[in-house]
Every structure is written in structure tokens, then in C-alpha cells.
Specification:
- This protein is an alpha+beta fold.
- It has two domains: 40 residues, no CATH class; 30 residues.
- The chain is built from one helix and three strands.
- Strands 1-2-3 form a three-stranded antiparallel β-sheet, with no helix packed on it.
- Strand 2 and strand 3 form a beta hairpin.
- The longest helix has 30 residues.
- The relative contact order is 0.09.
Length: 87
């Protein structure tokens, strides 16, 4: 089930999902009682993966732009069509 150092749970339909657990301890009547709250973190994990993917794409584009600028002729100019000064 899952990867090392991850906590997985099984849904009623048999599907597995990654969880985060909070455990609390309370003493009552000389007995220790524990409560465990499990949170489904599937959406959070998917968001983190998507952000990493986007950051990698941005880093690749920045690297390509750096290479382009380093090898571009000195007289090269770049214009943005959205710029108000564009003819």
C-alpha cells in the first residue's frame, strides 16, 4: 500500500487514498483515551504535484531564455504585442 512513510486508508468502495493523521490523548477516570482524526489529502497531494510540474516548466523556459539571450546578436530587440507602443 502506498509509499514508505505515508499513511493510507481504504474507502468503503475499496479504493485507497493517502491520509494525514492527528492523534490526541486524554486521561479520564485513570484511563488513557486516544482519538485519531484522519484527513484525506489526495487533492492536496495532486495540487502539490501540479505546482511542481508547473515550476519545472517555468524553469525550463527560463533556462531556454537565458541560453537565447546569451547567444543572441547584440542588436536583437524583443517586443510584446500587448505593449501600448506597438504599432
Amino acid at each position: 500500500m502506498g509509499v514508505l512513510n505515508a499513511l493510507w486508508a481504504v474507502a468503503a468502495d475499496g479504493g485507497e487514498f493517502e491520509t494525514e493523521a492527528s492523534i490526541s490523548q486524554v486521561e479520564m477516570g485513570g484511563k488513557k483515551l486516544f482519538t485519531v482524526i484522519l484527513r484525506d489529502i489526495t487533492e492536496r497531494q495532486q495540487s502539490v504535484q501540479e505546482l511542481r510540474r508547473q515550476q519545472e516548466a517555468i524553469n525550463r523556459q527560463a533556462d531556454l531564455l537565458r541560453i537565447f539571450v546569451e547567444h543572441a546578436p547584440a542588436g536583437l530587440a524583443m517586443f510584446d504585442r500587448e505593449c501600448a507602443m506597438w504599432p
